[in-house]
Amino acid sequence: MNSASVVNTLFEKKLITTAGRKEVVGSPFLYRTTPDFLVRFGLKELDELPKPEELAEDMAATVAEPLPPEPPAPASMRIGDDDLDGEDLEEFDEDDEDDEDEDDRGHAED
User: Fold this and answer.
1) 106 burial via Cβ count (<10 Å: 0-12, 13-18, 19+)
2) In the predicted model, is pLDDT for residue 25 greater than 60?
């Protein structure tokens, strides 16, 4: 899994900073959170963050439980082909609109 874009985003938003390098082959960077991280997430201290094992449990429960199906829309909100029989629909005719304008002025233009 490539986490470079996530780390870059956190770094750009000043939510993490470098904390040195780990003394192993390759000397990878170590990161720490900033005070802005705590403010952004509404935390007083890092101990309020969930433990990795808690996150794994939550993720497993989320994946294992399928979402319930959405209930069908009430009949009054459903529109089908048989509902569009045209009885209540009016056709828009541009010529009719012109006729109304003429009626409003009291005479027709020829």
Assistant:
1) exposed
2) yes
